[in-house]
């Protein structure tokens, strides 16, 4: 879910494994050696909002001073209303896009960020960011324009409205568009156009089959591993390694600027924009409002080695 207009994601790297097993239930965290850093289980009364001690609601259509429409051409206005962002009373966060006009109309939705920005891999160690979630359970014409995402931005973005994107790094852990039974995983870095990371597309997995990801909860994760040489970013679906990018894919300065700092986590559901447009089109009068992305848990873990 980057902050500039995107082109269709193409497979630009050999992947270690492209696999998302059908029928998987939500997986667990990584195994031994990991220390919990922070987590959110979304417990609370139905209809209540998020704790503002831990979460920031990003509202409107862009960061103050940043790119309009979040830089992607998406249509919705993000709000802090419990109509768009609420706990469901069953231990889930629901992010709900709503149409506010007739036909294609205008839309509202939700975009929330962790207040903490210090989720980083120590030198010689690893960090893992994971979420257990269910993609919006909508498909076909009713799903046109849906764009759900679980991702992270580099800490230096927070102070300047992400006007330093993509130099400061973006990790797209899970993107889903237009009700496809699939997932996309991407790292953004380098220059806004072209450069070593091929922006604005970034270095991506391409579309990967993800059977059951609309109907069931699955665990999506990224690990930044600084204990190996070259360093690696590794993506997982239900603890299966689905995509890997090594540091020697780009020059050392680009890699360091994009990854050697803290990150903050973002959860959102957009409507329209360049990404859905590239994979089937944007919203139409048939697009169904009110179908949430449900998030069961978000967690950050760290390993010293």
Question: What can you tell me about this protein's structure?
Answer:
- The structure is a single chain.
- This protein has 305 residues and is mainly beta.
- It contains two helices and 19 strands.
- It has helices at 252-259, 274-278; strands at residues 35-40, 55-57, 77-78, 85-87, 93-95, 98-99, 107-109, 111-114, 126-134, 146-154, 170-177, 182-188, 203-204, 208-209, 218-225, 232-237, 240-246, 263-271, 293-303.
- The radius of gyration is 18 Å and the shape is globular.
- Mean pLDDT is 91; it is low at 3-28.
Mean pLDDT: 91
Query: What does the largest sheet look like?
Result: 8 strands, antiparallel
- What structural class results from the helix and strand content? mainly beta
Shape: globular
Span between termini: 30 Å
Strand runs, count: 19
Unreliable segments of 5+ consecutive residues: 3-28
Question: What's the helix and strand layout?
Answer:
Layout lengths: L34 E6 L14 E3 L19 E2 L6 E3 L5 E3 L2 E2 L7 E3 L1 E4 L11 E9 L11 E9 L15 E8 L4 E7 L14 E2 L3 E2 L8 E8 L6 E6 L2 E7 L5 H8 L3 E9 L2 H5 L14 E11 L2
Parallel strand pairs: 3-7
Antiparallel strand pairs: 1-19, 2-8, 4-5, 5-19, 6-7, 8-18, 9-15, 9-19, 10-11, 10-18, 11-12, 12-13, 12-14, 15-16, 16-17
